[in-house]
Amino acid sequence: MREAIRDKLIFIAGIILLIGGTAAISYAPRPHCDRPAKRACRVIRVVDGDTFDADCGGRRPLRVRMLRIDAPERDEYGYGMAAAALRGLAEGEEVLLQDEEPGLPRCGHYGRRLAYVRRVRDGRDLNLAMIRSGMARWYVKYGWGTRWTRYLPAEIAACALERGLWGHPLVEWTPAASLITGGVR
């Protein structure tokens, strides 16, 4: 009987330590989230159609999640096409990371740096380029963002012209414009 109680107490203590240890890891300070993003970095690896690793002069690469766009995940149709599109636009390029408006989070809950991305050599907004090509959609789950006046018409055009993934029957995207107005595609 005492062994059973002791085993249960050890199990509960282990769970408490595990939860406490996870919380300590999850909420550990992330120095890259404290600094403003307006700096040049070189894209060293594209992860998917909206995420990449960049060399920003630190000890290790910075994982960047492009703001206000969403591309297919690894297990979704179109993942390879969207990743290839971003690779063609950004890999090996010097880019400028730009924050959203002041007061909004600089990092997402996965610890990735959230940023608008502008290619240095020609000033091209890569977030907008991904929307225009139809390889990513305008992502409004957490708000419209400061560039909605460019991103909304770009998505409407890409959807209407069935560019990129918008033209494929296996992609089940709903245009952000429909979500905003309450309409349906």
CATH class of the largest domain: Mainly Beta
Strand content: 15-25%
Structural class, judged by helices and strands?
Answer: alpha+beta
CATH architecture of the largest domain: Beta Barrel
For the report, how would you describe the main beta sheet?
5 strands, mixed, barrel
Question: Short description, anyone?
Answer:
By secondary structure, the chain is of the alpha+beta class.
Describe the structure.
Helices cover 36% and strands 19% of the residues. By secondary structure, it is an alpha+beta fold. It has 2 domains: 1-30; 35-181, OB fold (Dihydrolipoamide Acetyltransferase, E2P) (Beta Barrel), CATH 2.40.50. The chain has a 5-stranded mixed β-barrel with strand order 1-2-3-6-5. The longest helix is centred in the first third of the chain and has 25 residues, at 2-26.
Secondary-structure blueprint:
Layout: H1 2-26, H2 31-34, E1 39-48, E2 51-55, E3 62-66, E4 69-70, H3 79-90, E5 94-98, E6 113-119, H4 126-132, E7 137-138, H5 148-160, H6 176-181
Parallel strand pairs: 3-6
Antiparallel strand pairs: 1-2, 1-5, 2-3, 4-7, 5-6
Characteristics:
19% strand, 185 residues, five-stranded mixed barrel, 36% helix, 6 helices, OB fold (Dihydrolipoamide Acetyltransferase, E2P), alpha+beta, 2 domains, two-stranded antiparallel ribbon
